[in-house]
Specification:
alpha+beta, 5-stranded antiparallel β-sheet, disordered N terminus, about 220 residues, SH3 type barrels
Length: about 220
């Protein structure tokens, strides 16, 4: 009993180590039989491109034992097995891959066009921002110059206002001095006039007496 179990284990291990994937050739259908001859029962028909797990090969009979994906096993003619998928299936796969690549390429082209458009819009926006920034810089420079001129003008105005105040004070001083001189001149003329009048009055009193004395002196002669 132990020997039997060991034998089966060895067979299973050798079978697992030998197992490889094979594919049905481009023939439309291949028979899978229960044994290694066309006299054995046909278990099923395998279409082209069917994937099989190769369990063992008998070069003498020309048959190989295979296992399908569902676990069923059988024998097929070895020359109908290939190590890669059939050319027709590979072509279909390649066409699918080509179609997928074309679709991806088209999507990439669309994205590239979108990126190109966005890049163009960004460049346009950047140019506009640069122009606006340059305009603002010029405006800032102009305002700065105006501010500098305004400060200079304000300083000059302050100087002129101070000079004006000084001139006003000088004018007021001259006006006061002029008024003082005018008052003094009027007073002097008043004094002179009063003196003239007084002198006239004195002369008016003296002259008649002098004439009267002269007449008296003449009359005494």
């Amino acid at each position: 009993m132990k020997r039997t179990i060991i034998f089966f284990l060895i067979c299973a291990a050798s079978t697992a180590a030998y197992a490889e994937t094979r594919y049905i050739t481009d023939r439309l259908e291949v028979t899978m039989r229960s044994g290694e001859s066309n006299q054995h029962k046909i278990l099923r028909m395998l279409g082209s491109g069917t994937a099989l797990e190769l369990l063992q090969t008998n070069p003498d009979s020309g048959y190989s034992q295979v296992r399908l994906a569902d676990g069923s096993q059988g024998w097929v003619i070895t020359r109908y097995l290939e190590q890669q998928r059939s050319a027709r299936e590979r072509l279909a796969t390649a066409e699918q891959q080509l179609a997928r690549i074309k679709s991806e390429n088209s999507a990439l082209n669309d994205k590239l066009a979108q990126f190109t458009k966005e890049n163009s819009e960004l460049k346009s926006t950047t140019n506009k921002l640069s122009a606006a920034n340059e305009k603002q810089s010029k405006e800032f420079t102009r305002v700065k110059n105006i501010s500098s001129n305004a400060l200079a003008l304000d300083s000059e105005n302050a100087t002129l206002r101070e000079q004006s105040r000084q001139l006003e004070r000088s004018h007021q001083a001259l006006q006061l001095e002029n008024d003082s001189l005018k008052d003094r001149s009027d007073r002097d003329w008043f004094i002179v006039g009063a003196g003239v009048i007084l002198l006239g009055m004195i002369l008016g009193l003296i002259i008649p007496k002098i004439r009267w004395r002269k007449k008296s002196d003449w009359s005494s002669l």
